[in-house]
Amino acid sequence: MSRVPDQASNKNSRQENEGSWIGELGRTIFLSIILALGIRTFVAEARWIPSESMLPTLQKYDKLIVDKLSYRFTNPQRGDIVVFSPTEGIIQENPNLKDAFIKRIVGLPGDKVEVRGGRVYIDDQPLRENYIEAPPQYLYGPVFVPEDSYLVLGDNRNNSYDSHFWGFVPRENIIGRAVVRFWPPNRVGELN
């Protein structure tokens, strides 16, 4: 004698399977969102270049990965390309500017920085710069970089809204260091 399946039992079993599938999907989506927000907040995030101020190193619309973790353990170094929040000097001049900036660190805390004769001088020594678009056609300084601050310049020195206009970047404004270009595909790679 064969047993006829109980329809109520079959229905409950189906609801449990569907419920567990929907519940699992919900938990997976929730966990993915939490992980993505955590990574973006504390580890790394993608950014794009809105201007030509970093030519020739970075071109307009390049897309980068910004490392937000390493500066929790080390200090920014001369030559690092950093992303930072607008400084008080920027906000005073342009209250509507709220987007992050990207520039190269040139002056470290305590450095004497001067721009003259188409060269940048750090503590009266010319800085070797094989990454700039053209020699700077302006005079700046000498200035001393304050403690816990940095002097940043665009690689396109003559077309960059940078420290020589609005001053120094406090350490707490630095979001992270640009480490990898991931777009466009023909120029993917690590940034030096």
UniProtKB/TrEMBL annotation:
This is Signal peptidase I. It is an enzyme of class 3 (hydrolase). InterPro entries: LexA/Signal_pep-like_sf (IPR036286), Pept_S26A_signal_pept_1 (IPR000223), Pept_S26A_signal_pept_1_CS (IPR019758), Pept_S26A_signal_pept_1_Lys-AS (IPR019757), Pept_S26A_signal_pept_1_Ser-AS (IPR019756), Peptidase_S26 (IPR019533). Pfam families: Peptidase_S26. The keyword Disulfide bond does not apply. The keyword Protease applies. It is found in: Cell membrane; Membrane. GO terms for molecular function: signal peptidase activity. The gene is lepB. It catalyses: Cleavage of hydrophobic, N-terminal signal or leader sequences from secreted and periplasmic proteins. Its EC number is 3.4.21.89. Signal peptide: none annotated. Keywords: Hydrolase, Protease. It is a single-pass type II membrane protein. It comes from Gloeocapsopsis crepidinum LEGE 06123. SUPFAM superfamilies: LexA/Signal peptidase. The lineage of its organism: Bacteria, Bacillati, Cyanobacteriota, Cyanophyceae, Oscillatoriophycideae. Belongs to the peptidase S26 family. Residues 24-183 form the Peptidase S26 domain.
